[in-house]
Amino acid sequence: MDYKIKIKTDTQFLDLFKKIEKSKVNIPTHVSECFSVKMLDLEAFKWFSENLKKIDGPPLHTLITEESIVLPSPPIVESSPEYKEKMRKLEQRLKNKEYDAMTKNVDFRRVRLPEDTISYQIKQINRQLIAVLQFVISTAAGFLFGFLGIELMLSTTFDLGFKLLLGIICALIIALAEIYFLAKKLAEDFEPLDISGKVHQD
After folding, report:
1. What H or E segment, with its residue span, contains residue 129?
2. CA angle 74, 70, 47 (to 5 degrees)
3. Residues 39, 69, 31: CA angle, nearest 5 degrees
4. Contact yes or no for 35/15 (Cβ under 8 A)
């Protein structure tokens, strides 16, 4: 596909080109072909602009109109069947979601979604509180192990600064491990929405 800007010639362009021909100027074959199809590319247009001055022609900008400029159009890419199928399923999923939102308060025969119940919300809050509490306790236990446990295990005495350093290192290691397992658990709990369902029919 040709992505170059082209200039469409009209009678003014053609008349001026004939005058240039009569002035016995050497005309490249490419330029002649462009004028024969009444469509100039940038190379032919540049040649025309340079030779227009030799015959004392009108200013070039007076010859160009909005209709004479032909811009390249982007290629039209046909969507693949897989993409069309995914879009169809996504549209069905969105329609199902809108239908659920509109009818859950008026159609009491339909079962409410689990996340709409208070018990579900309370369970989620409890799970989050337990996870935070577990993180705090594990990190504190790691700090105490580094601060006191290592000293007791080795039956020796460390400086306060060194004990603090050991406690912080142990707490940091346990905190990173807790964050890793917490993120892994959240990833396992995440369930992608099913987009293969059918649209509800009234």
Report:
1. helix 118-144
2. 125
3. 25
4. no
